[in-house]
Batch of 2 targets.
Target 1
Amino acid sequence: MSNCLPNFVIEFNKRVKESEVFRSIARDSELQQEACENLESALSEIAQEKQIAVENNNEDYANLLLGCEFAAQSLLHELKMWLLLKQEKPEEAWDHLVGAQMKATRAAKADNGFRHLEHYRQHLEIIEKIVFPPQVFVSAGMIIHEQECSICGEDYDECEHIAGKPYMGNFCHVIVKDVTADHISIVENPADKRCRVTSFNVEGGSRNKMTWKIKESAENTSAPTGYAERTAQLAIEGDEQTAIDYLEKETKEITG
Ligand SMILES: [Zn+2]
């Protein structure tokens, strides 16, 4: 971030600061909801400002705004997490926690001015450990035959862009075009913590790994495939059906 920040960014920072006070389960839900709405409107303003920066070919500013965008999204995810926990929706809350962690990490990579968000990310890791029960993560192994660069649309192996780096207000990522599902495995440090074992079979049904409640076996059939579908959707974008079919078949054997 440059020493002389544009007014738009100064105003944005003020709005984010105002919302930060609601980062606690003890805060009033209605006020937290209002803070979420404020962040959402700040996000739509950032999108417009970024569009102008892109049209003006101002890459530094576009990337700074990308950092603003991800910082605001990270905070928005955290506020939603607290709201959902109060509504007894821990699984949705978990997804927002992971969203907050991922966005904070990305924001720190968008522009040097957001490096401090690494500390915020560590704070979110602590929340993960003390608020939620331990989770078992899964990772989908894929054989990738073709991958495209999100920035230039060329073969990722042949272009000069680097996945995870910002270019004119967008992060480069790899779009998987042709993939074969190979295996899934239990991992300690997954790329995406939303890919997790959500339930496992116990006598009489299926136990939810988050709430510890047992769903009776008659309703049990969708439980083992839930995370498999999720894994497939999140792991790849190019050939979801192949992966889902494969993973549904494979994960019926996993019992937690
Ligand atoms: Zn490229």
Target 2
Amino acid sequence: MQWTPERVEVLTRLWAEGLSARQIAAKLGGVTRNAVIGKAHRLNLQRGAPVPEPPPIPEPVIREEPPVALGPDVKSWMCRQQTEEPGRHGLHICGKTAQPGRPYCAEHITASYVQRKRTAA
Ligand SMILES: [Zn+2]
């Protein structure tokens, strides 16, 4: 009996799957259990260890929506200070030109600063 590459491949696969030498010998045919064991040892085959589960893919981080839906009419340059009555542009925000890098106009930056200062005091 020749150990053709195909038979070695079958042996390797079945051995890794955990079949007994007798079962593998039966599947291959024309080979004894001892021959299977001998070949497996010569090939230094490893009994199949349980394949580790791949780590779970982390859920994508869902960015929290901003607290107020400002709508498509709100431009990035608009002051976001909310107003009781519809202000400019018919929106419930101030809508004045905001300060660079700030969501509020100069007036409302000052107002919120004063308010915070008053709250802190
Ligand atoms: Zn404003």
